[in-house]
Design goal:
Length: about 450
């Protein structure tokens, strides 16, 4: 009972100094919980945020991939119709195989994908509002693709895939075309050259491999501004492009947007040669959402394909994620260091003021251990109150950061609170160490006689 009465008396005295300790621990807990909460949840959110600027994996026929590697002709994955190639593709994948992407181990990390058939065609206007004699263009890049196609999987689930989600940064004047229709989008540069606007109709002419010349009327539902040379192109439904080019069920590229884990040494080793991995390394790599492991699994389900990560996008995601996490961890460490210094100084000042009280306790028989436990218990109770309040405030701050920066809340994992409480416990113990040493050095006779 004596021990608990002393704790109660300690709370009633030096209220201001104890309050400062509680506030210090509370602020440290707030910063630590907020920062670590964001750190543990920021990976998917950053990847989702960055992936709005394009795909991070591209799939193409194996023959094309070999040629690209030999002659370094690979272009920007997000500028499919930039016009850098004047020739049509000669090797293809099957469009009907594209939905298999959603059957791989990391299917839920595939947020969107869109197959493409990149061809060239002649364009003539077919609108009474436009002078057809001046409205002509040859060799226009045409991209046959999905816009918002609903896929019904064998598992019974449904998903929507297409350019509507892949090109979220486009500025679109009008509306997206419907899949499997005679509608299309036209880039601002090409629209200005032809003098067409939303609602106009153009006619596409394409000479196929067998020598026949097909034509297809396309109603323009929107004019897009991509901010790059893609503005010279037209986007139409893949089924329409396949009929125009007489290439049924054919595509030459699939853009894939996936949530991935930044590469490390294991991922880089696997990307060079997966067969060089040991069994344990293989299982770790295959069951981790690295860009290379997702690409490998895509190759497994799509025959004759090569899937590659877009290095610039993948590197940017990993670099930004690591730097963001490093900054937040640094802020957590600095807050803990500041808390340790503040608690140590406040405890030292408190012990200095209470020297006579502590010396009296030792004089009437209290051991050094009992006095030390008294001070630690008092500091622990005060710190616990501050930590609990700080944890609640930190959760709120994390939500604010999530909504302001990422537009969604932060999922607070229980391990964040456990980790913060462990770190604060170690911080308070370290801060208390020097003060406890001064208690052990107290000599009751000298202190009580004012010496």
């Amino acid at each position: 009972m004596f021990f608990f009465r002393m704790i109660f008396r300690s709370f009633s005295r030096q209220f201001k100094r104890r309050l400062l300790i509680a506030v210090t621990v509370c602020l440290s807990a707030t910063v630590s919980v907020a920062m670590l909460g964001v750190v543990f949840d920021v990976g998917d959110k950053l990847n989702a945020e960055l992936s709005t600027y394009g795909s991070n994996i591209t799939v193409q026929p194996k023959a094309d991939a070999v040629v690209n590697d030999l002659y370094n002709t690979g272009g920007d994955a997000n500028s499919s119709a930039s016009g850098t190639s004047e020739s049509d593709p000669t090797t293809f994948l099957k469009e009907s195989d594209a939905p298999k992407i959603k059957t791989i181990f990391w299917a839920f990390n595939i947020t969107n994908f869109a197959p493409e058939l990149n061809i060239h065609a002649d364009v003539n206007c077919a609108s009474e509002s436009v002078d057809s004699s001046s409205c002509k263009a040859s060799g226009v890049p045409i991209v046959g693709t999905w816009f918002a196609k609903t896929l019904h999987m064998d598992s019974g689930e449904s998903t929507v895939a297409g350019m509507n989600g892949m090109r979220s940064w486009w500025k679109l004047d009008g509306s997206w075309p419907k899949d499997d229709s005679a509608q299309g989008l036209i880039g601002t540069t090409l629209a200005s050259k032809l003098g067409v606007t939303t609602g106009d109709t153009v006619t596409l002419y394409k000479t196929t491999a067998d020598g026949s010349r097909n034509k297809q009327r396309i109603t323009i539902t929107g004019i897009y501004d991509s901010g790059d040379s893609d503005n010279n192109a037209m986007y139409i439904p893949s089924s329409t492009a396949q009929v125009l080019a007489n290439l049924p069920d054919s595509i030459d590229k699939i853009e894939v947007k996936a949530l991935t884990t930044p590469d490390n040494d294991l991922a880089r080793k696997a990307s060079k040669n997966p067969n060089a991995l040991t069994q344990d390394e293989w299982e770790t790599w295959y069951c981790t959402a690295y860009p290379s492991s997702i690409a490998y699994q895509i190759e497994e389900v799509i025959p004759g394909s090569v899937a590659k990560q877009v290095r610039q996008v993948a590197a940017l995601q990993g670099d930004v994620l690591q730097k963001t996490q490093a900054v937040m961890v640094l802020m957590t460490v600095l807050s803990l260091v500041a808390a340790a210094i503040a608690v140590a100084n406040l405890m030292a000042a408190s012990i200095g003021e209470r020297g006579s009280e502590l010396a009296l306790l030792k004089a009437i028989g209290a051991t050094d251990g009992a006095v030390s436990r008294l001070m630690l218990a008092e500091t622990a109770v005060i710190s616990l109150v501050g930590a609990i309040v700080g944890a609640l405030l930190g959760s709120g701050v994390a939500q604010i950061v999530g909504h302001v920066v990422f537009g969604s809340g932060i999922t607070m994992r229980p391990m964040v609170f456990v980790l913060v409480f462990v770190l604060l416990t170690l911080t308070v113990l370290i801060a208390s160490f020097s003060s406890i040493r001064s208690i052990l050095g107290l000599k009751p006779a000298e202190v009580l006689h004012g010496r």
